[in-house]
DNA sequence: AAAACTGTAACATTTTTTATTACTTTTAAA
DNA sequence: TTTAAAAGTAATAAAAAATGTTACAGTTTT
């Protein structure tokens, strides 16, 4: 999965930020986004791996934030849910005998690296707290 | 089609820039990227619509640049091949009774608009000539 | 013990992207 | 003046990616 992860994860975290003391169930969270609870749990698994949230199993279980909303940036979320933003590559092994084909992907890669650096910089200036305050 | 268009179009234009006086056939171009000629012609149709290239039908026909490589920026290409860069949305109609669900897409949209503005700014500083010179 | 959860793998479905075919039109050259 | 080599384009097919579902094991509270 690539697309969707960032938006789902940010949605989850925004919800958690509004109830910092409660364990929210994947069913409750899924209800807010009209999504299957299993997909929510998959993204929560990723958040746990990154020590952003903790979960409690069993009855009355659920998930809550581990870190302060002011200590989580959108760049953190970007990095843990998205590889890189790209505008596409030449995917069918371009002709190695053509000087353009031979180098196109390398040059695209360089370009996209720049783009991603700028996006990272921008997103690192926005905390989950900032984002959550918009609601 | 969304993905692929930018990379394919940039590849086409880079090739054309290396032979500014020749009409290159879609078959020749497709050969450089190991792609079906029909897909190449589709992207060329888009370039023609934007007055970047012209084509000649019939035997010995093909496509060539209409504009100077120093007058075409990567932002021009971005704008004509890509809607917007996003990190995804909540696509299943999030719950309108949830304050987060109700507003999530609007807030994501705002965020992505910023991202796209910055990408546009960056790409507008790179001409086709600049890019082509890397080969 | 029952109920309400999480965790996760396997599988199914849907959507998007990419590729192909088929056929029309145009032009240059033999 | 016929043939070959090209573009243009619509319709369809195939492949890949994303998303959704089921099923079931494990955990914790009541």
UniProtKB/TrEMBL annotation, chains A, B:
MF term (GO), any: DNA-binding transcription factor activity
Residue ranges the record marks as coiled coil: none
Pfam families assigned to the protein according to its UniProt record, in alphabetical order: Rrf2
Any one cellular-component term (Gene Ontology): cytosol
Protein name per Swiss-Prot or TrEMBL: BadM/Rrf2 family transcriptional regulator
Species annotation: Flavobacterium aquicola
